[in-house]
UniProtKB/TrEMBL annotation:
Keywords: ATP-binding, Isomerase, Lyase, Metal-binding, Multifunctional enzyme, NAD, NADP, Nucleotide-binding, Potassium. PROSITE patterns: YJEF_C_2 (PS01050), YJEF_C_3 (PS51383), YJEF_N (PS51385). Residues 10-195 form the YjeF N-terminal domain. This is Bifunctional NAD(P)H-hydrate repair enzyme. InterPro entries: Carbohydrate_kinase_pred_CS (IPR017953), CARKD (IPR000631), Nnr (IPR030677), Ribokinase-like (IPR029056), YjeF_N_dom (IPR004443), YjeF_N_dom_sf (IPR036652). Gene3D superfamilies: 3.40.1190.20, YjeF N-terminal domain (3.40.50.10260). Homotetramer. Signal peptide: none annotated. Its cofactor is K(+); Mg(2+). Residues 202-461 form the YjeF C-terminal domain. Belongs to the NnrD/CARKD family.
Amino acid sequence: MRGLWTTARVRSAEERVLAVTPPGALMRRAAFGVASVALELLGGRRRVGLLVGAGNNGGDALWAGHHLRRRGVAVFAVLLAPERAHPEGLAAFRRAGGRVVAELPPVDLVVDGIVGLSARGPLRPDAAEHVARLDAPVLAVDLPSGVDPDTGAVDGPHVRAHTTVTFGCLKPVHALADCGDVRLVDLGLGPELGGPDLVELELDDVGAAWPVPGPEDDKYTQGVTGVAAGSATYPGAAVLSTGAAVLATSGMVRYAGAAADHVRARWPEAVCTGSTTDAGRVQSWVVGPGLGTGLSAEAVLRGVLEAGVPVCADADAITMLANNPDLWDARDPGTPLVLTPHDREYERLLGPVGPDRVAAARRAADRFDAVVLLKGHTTVIAGPDGRTLVNRARSSWAATAGSGDVLSGVLGALLAAGLDPVLAAGCAARAHVLAAELAADGAPVPASVLLAALPDAIRAVRPL
Ligand SMILES: NC(=O)C1=CN([C@@H]2O[C@H](COP(=O)(O)OP(=O)(O)OC[C@H]3O[C@@H](n4cnc5c(N)ncnc54)[C@H](OP(=O)(O)O)[C@@H]3O)[C@@H](O)[C@H]2O)[C@@H](O)CC1
Ligand SMILES: Nc1ncnc2c1ncn2[C@@H]1O[C@H](COP(=O)(O)OP(=O)(O)O)[C@@H](O)[C@H]1O
Ligand SMILES: [K+]
């Protein structure tokens, strides 16, 4: 598990550490970390450029330039606000033989010290012009400048980092946006930080949580997943969602709906009926993919919400809840509900997602007293208790029709197995990303192939 702390939390921890640390010591430690990673990336090459802003982020870059000079590297600095450049950092840089220039000459690596934690919004025009001219890889100090530290949002010119060196702890930007390879330099903030604001599950966490049958188990004890999805128009959604539940966990999957023949033909192990009313007992329901939004679909959703087992409400189920708020009343208040909207479905529920996906997911979790999994390249999972997970895809191949149906089936199976719903959502999202990576391997991947890669993804995360 990787914890991430917002800038406000980092600042208050830093204040307490600064109060008991000699002046400048934290910055020099941070800068030494930047210089060490720069030397590693240079691999023997010897020319570095610095882009230096007005704040302490620029100070870090100048001190890193000082360390690099001492290791014999030629270092050139562009000062974006010369009169406000960090005075001690600039003096040390000059003393060590660093050269201040109006424009960077050809270099092997650029250190981005334009802005750090205090900045908001895109790069200003002068900084953006320098960044647009770069052709060397960029090592970002703390975060790629122009990317919002707390939301990862990008709204104009920004730095694209090959590597980011950050200090003290990871911040939301490091999980929500592309920061390249992220390295952490310890500043001793740990004891002052408290619990993280956001958490990113690692593969080991997913593997440890994934349900595995024991010697005493049979097909019922592991939780039976119910899938209420598909229609005459969209049988494929039922096939994909049911198949994902079949592959995600051992045990049993019941399918109930109009696509029973299609599901049976593809997944003979699923127990299929035409209606949720005669489906038999289940320990969770997945409802919505390809279901339609008519009166009969509403009746299905109502029945599932009343059933008293955890529900994953996806796709058309979300649209129905948005269109007909009376449906919320059918919900059994004591049982978990996981909503899995993409941005357009979210908008139907609560208006535009906006640039802050974490805040949006939390808003919905709070409003609906549900776990909300806001899908996208960066998926955010918020629980009604405030827990928040983020899961960033490494590629965008999963942006393909039907891939959300696969996610819903995996999530439903993990709910049936009894996983805590926030953890279930986090594990499903992580395994889905991994299956997409394994299946795509650099080329487009249809959802049915992503689905077929689920067993490989599960094998890859399970402890040896
Ligand atoms: N605290 C610590 O213990 C440690 C902190 N450390 C380091 O300090 C960093 C935080 O430093 P910080 O607070 O000085 O602010 P920082 O992010 O460098 O720059 C803000 C300045 O930039 C400007 N500016 C704003 N927006 C902008 C934009 N879009 N485009 C361009 N310019 C923009 C704005 O100026 P103004 O608006 O006045 O023109 C403001 O002056 C942190 O990320 C880490 O690297 C490490 O040394 C470890 C120890
Ligand atoms: N740009 C992207 N990069 C990576 N994954 C993405 C991207 N866009 C969407 N996804 C993922 O693909 C899936 C799409 O789900 P959804 O929009 O419901 O598709 P469908 O309704 O066709 O099944 C989600 O798991 C989402 O997180
Ligand atoms: K930076």
